[in-house]
């Protein structure tokens, strides 16, 4: 069975930050692979604005649970 979850505008901005939910899904389904559509800038918040958030995203990518897809510049 395949399950597709789509989320647009993944960014550390609180309006669209769903990192907590991603980590919960990975905890429940350790082999899950998610793709987040990510703009470089969301509502004046660049991706690099929160180094802790970036480190957590990087870890999820390295563990093969998360992929980022480019979703425009802003």
Describe the structure concisely for a colleague.
The protein is built from 2 helices and 5 strands. It is α/β, with parallel strands linked by helices.
What does this structure look like?
This protein has 74 residues and is α/β, with parallel strands linked by helices. The chain is built from 2 helices and 5 strands. Strands 1-2-5 form a 3-stranded parallel sheet. The protein has a two-stranded antiparallel ribbon with strand order 3-4. The mean pLDDT is 91.
The main sheet comes to: 3 strands, parallel
Spatial order of the strands forming the largest sheet: 1-2-5
Structural class: alpha/beta
Beta-strand portion reads 15-25%
Total count of strands: 5
Task: Please specify the SSE layout and strand pairing.
Elements: E1 6-8, H1 19-28, E2 34-38, E3 41-42, E4 45-46, H2 51-62, E5 66-70
Parallel strand pairs: 1-2, 2-5
Antiparallel strand pairs: 3-4
List keywords for this structure.
alpha/beta, two-stranded antiparallel ribbon, 74 residues, 3-stranded parallel sheet, 30% helix
